[in-house]
Amino acid sequence: MSLQEMFCFPLGLLLGSVLLVASAPATPELPGCSDKEQQVTVSHTYKIDVPKSALVQVEADPQPLSDDGASLLALGEAREEQNIIFRHNIRLQTPQKDCELATSVQDLLARVKQLEEEMMEMKKQCSAQRCCQGATDLRRHCSGHGTFSLETCSCHCQEGWEGAACEQQACPGACSGHGRCVDGRCLCHEPYVGADCGYPACPENCSGHGECVRGVCQCHEDFTSEDCSERRCPGDCSGHGFCDTGECYCEEGFAGLDCAQVVVPQGLQLLKSTEDSLLVSWEPSSQVDHYLLSYYPLGKEISGKQIQVPGEQHSYEILNLLPGTKYIVTLRNVKKEVSSSPQHLLATTGEEVWVGVGCEYTLLPGGAMHGPWYLDPEGAVEKSCLPALTSHAACLFPGLRPGTEYKITVVPMRGELEGKPILLTGRTEIDSPTNVITDRVTEDTATVSWDPVQAVIDKYMVRYTSADGNTEETAVHKDESSTVLTGLKPGEAYKVYVWAERGNQGSRKADTSALTEIDSPANLVTDRVTENTATISWDPVQATIDKYVVHYTSADQETREVPVGKEQSSAVLTGLRPGVEYTVHVWAQKGDRESKKAHTKAPTDIDSPKNLVTDRVTENMATVSWDPVQAAIDKYVVRYTSAVGETREVPVGKEQSSTVLTGLRPGVEYTVHVWAQKGDQESKKAHTKAQTAPKTCHPVRVTENVATVSWDPVQAAIDKYVVCYTSADDQETREVPVGREQSSAAGRGVQVHVWAQKGGREIKKAHTKAQTELDPPRNLRPSAVTQSGGVLTWTPPSAQIHGYILTYQFPDGTVKEMQLGREDQRFELQGLEQGATYPVSLVAFKGDRRSRNVSTTLSTVGARFPHPSDCSQVQQNNNAASGLYTIYLHGEASRPLQVYCDMHTDGGGWIVFQRRNTGQLDFFKRWRSYVEGFGDPRKEFWLGLDNLHNLTTGTPTRYEVRVDLQTANESAYAIYDFFQVASSKERYKLTVGKYRGTAGDALSYHNGWKFTTFDRDNDIALSNCALTHHGGWWYKNCHLANPNGRYGETKHSEGVNWEPWKGHEFSIPYVELKIRPRGYSSDPVLGRKKRTLGGRLRTF
Q1: What pTM does this model have?
Q2: Which residues does the UniProt record annotate as the domain Fibronectin type-III (predicted)?
């Protein structure tokens, strides 16, 4: 292989640089030349990339040395192993004459030029272009992000890189044509997003209620719509209604929160009963497709039958039934193949009635009996007798009339001889009323009707008994077959019995049931109406109910419905629009039964104009403007009244929101009222003040007790000016003359008049108001200072004032301002930091005027721990009540943290870092939520892994942890003598110590394990324990303790569990986790109270 081939193919690209190192003679010394030999060394150095695996080994030759042993090559590339050095040594002999040196140098330069030409030729033959025609500058070897192909003379770039030499970082999908690529990242054009700008941004960023996936919002479970802004309705209204702001509005015939239920049929009752049939009816409904009627004998449900009844029919006769049998009849409404809950009826068929009399007799030995006969009331003799199956001789006479007396003759016989006839009488029983039904039932009445009996009777008797056992009985004339039961209780079930009587004889009792309607709320009225609220009240119903329902509709059919507790008899309608009349319906409910609706009207007030201001005020005019009202109105009315009682009133168009008041007098204060009108209805009046400018007279340089007044001088010749000023309370009036050359005077009054005089004549007076400044309060000083507050007192000013403004500044620079009344001369500051200084200032005010401020400082008493690092130190600072406190991590003032301190359990001093007691807060959270913490420390919450790490590490204090568990009637606890949470790098690994307590040791199982959430799996189970057990915890494989599980869940291992105490299938309703310094104990400490968690009342 030639040297050329070796360079071009196996050694790769030749990167050339020329290093010319010359040990050249100095400038020749004239007239003679040096006697030393002059040597010039020309070196050409080339760096060749040779892979370490290549068979060709390239080493640099030894460096050339000078006569004194020094290197003739410069440091740098000459020392690199992959350099090839072409070296030419040119030695010059000592010239004979000094002038020969110039010729020798010329020869040397010619040889160097020739050498360079030879090297150029060699570079041309071994260049990259010779190896790969057309390639340019491929010496960069694909920038380390690809491989070079000699076959294609190009780089094959690794994924994520592009360019001829793979020098540019590629962007995903070339930014999809919707952005530009910068350093491998897409900068998307609006509205496109994503790593590759491949899809448009989600509308409204999914409103914070969903995740944006490739331009489409994936809404959270409770939200829907394109931008997840609408709250999802339960079950999406089951396809039987429409959803509006999370509430279902059901189609006719459907009901329930999710419109999944068909309205239950109403008024199922028995109309008629015979021996083999039942006639039932119900209230008609236009909201159903058909009815489903089923029936079966009581206790024999398996033999039931089912009938489909058309929707337009509202009664049905069930035939071919068994006599004297109780049947269960059920009725369901069916709409869109969905059946309602059943309405039940217990009905009994009539028994087979045998009406007749019978007689018994004893035959003597050898005797016989002739007859018996009976004689009916009309005297006709009948001879019909049926033998009775008794041990005695007996005869039955069937087919007789009920309640009728018959004469019976019995003749004994022996052979042909007849004995003396025996005369008997017999009376048939009174037949019972049949088809007893109740209808036309109201809140307190019910009509009972029946089919008349056949027997001759004196009267009917009706008895009705309420569910609480109260019984009433009434007689009904024999010719009547119905009666009205009165005085019934609303919403009460009654048992009704009807029978016939004649003398002392009574028929069997027929019975039915009557359920009175729920009475309607009475005296429904509307009062305390405002612009957007209205209070309605009613008289409570007498019936036992579940709740009231209040339904209100605006004139444009905007509807809302709210439930009201059964104990209440009023409700406040909120969210109303001003100036709109609402129709309000109220009814009572019990189960699926409703009372009649009571209704009233609730017209809201017209809202008042807001932000009424006056501006552009001159001597005789002022502009008044306001925010328009929301209600529909006819016009605005503006009324303005001067200080002397002069009043004007002007109408303003409803489209306008400003007007100009004209014809005003200079220097007069006007009171302006603006209100809206619609018909004879008026809004409340908004008011403001408008002070017109004085003509020319005005005060300047006003102090507490001096006011300087100036005016424009008059043009006429005068003797003097007169200044008259009167104090605001009219207690002092003074008049002073002023020289005609003067145009100002000092005064101490408020109302000032100035006029000019000549002789006894006066010009028209100019006037103004000059109010002296308010004097400030005096002797502001603190007293009764404690660790958390103190009392400020002062002496009031002499001026008449409206009140005071007290301002004090916290150590962090926050300023708090309090407005006090004019009678106040003291104020108590509370809730201050211990050992802190508070600057305090106080000013008096009257209207918009202020006095000078007076100031002082209040320094609270210091605490044992100015910056408590935990709740034990908070407790030692004389804080005895459980509640929210600020601690400081490791006692550093710059690291405050608000925590909930338990000051009662086992001596107190506990930092509570987790609580479950209501189930209102979902603990199925992401990793970030568990790191940062969530919830309200006064309710359910998690303090946060970062906070737990900061509390338990980086401090010499060793903390113990306590777990409190509680059910409705049991409690237990577990304490571990060491508790520590590692850093985020260690995934917040848990370390706990030895156990003691009554709940059993569940936490040691989790010792040494990292924290896991559904989006950060750090456990050793095959699945994600947080995902399968619905929480975040230090899961192993998976848990014995799951305090952050799903509240109330009883499925195995998915609830709030502490396995040694209640197992894996009991969700513990109260759990609290807390830490404090190990071995800490404290006697009860008396101190100021803080906010508490409901007085430690645990609810779950």
Answers
A1: 0.36
A2: 264-352, 432-519, 520-609, 610-696, 776-864
